[in-house]
Amino acid sequence: MAVSSPIALQNQKYVSLATFRRSGQQVRTPVWFAEQEGKFFVMTRSDSGKFKRIRNHPQVRLAACTVRGKITGAWIDGQARILDRAEEGIARQALARKYLLMRFPWLWSKKNIFLEIALRPA
């Protein structure tokens, strides 16, 4: 079930994406994000720790934050899904509308992958 975009995340440039290690320990990373139709999209690399943690444990949390990761809003629970190459278009377009640097494909690695995050209803 999709949730409308929470007010806490509207007009924000960054969110802290909390992923979980096998031990249950939370790891926070500030990331760019885009929202479309109640889904949130994030780009990361296939060799990153957060990709590996999400592959093992798809539950995540999001909170508005600064570029350095200082939390400025409430945590919201969600479930991440790794998009396959055929599904990446909508995520790439949503992020490109929000962030100018996303429009320059030569800046990005072939190891980049996209995540879709569905927020849990409160």
Rg, rounded, reads 13 Å
Q: If strands are numbered along the chain, what order do they take across the biggest sheet? A: 2-1-5-6-7-4-3
Strand content: 35-45%
What is the CATH topology descriptor?
Pnp Oxidase, Chain A
Number of helices: 2
Report helical residue fraction: 10-25%
| N-to-C span | 12 Å
Main beta sheet strand tally, sense and closure = 7 strands, antiparallel
Structure description:
The model has no long low-confidence stretch (mean pLDDT 89). This protein has helices at residues 49-56, 88-98; strands at 14-20, 26-32, 34-36, 39-45, 59-65, 76-82, 112-119. The protein is globular, with a radius of gyration of 13 Å. The protein has one domain: Pnp Oxidase, Chain A (Roll). A hairpin with a 2-residue loop joins strand 3 (34-36) and strand 4. The termini are close together. The longest helix is centred in the C-terminal third of the chain and has 11 residues, at 88-98. It has 122 residues and is of the alpha+beta class. The protein has 2 helices and 7 strands, in the order E-E-E-E-H-E-E-H-E. 16% of the residues lie in helices and 38% in strands. A 7-stranded antiparallel β-sheet has the order 2-1-5-6-7-4-3, with helices on both faces.
Can you summarize this structure?
This protein has helices spanning 49-56, 88-98, and strands spanning 14-20, 26-32, 34-36, 39-45, 59-65, 76-82, 112-119.
What features would you highlight for this structure?
globular; seven-stranded antiparallel sheet; 122 residues; 2 helices; 38% strand; Pnp Oxidase, Chain A
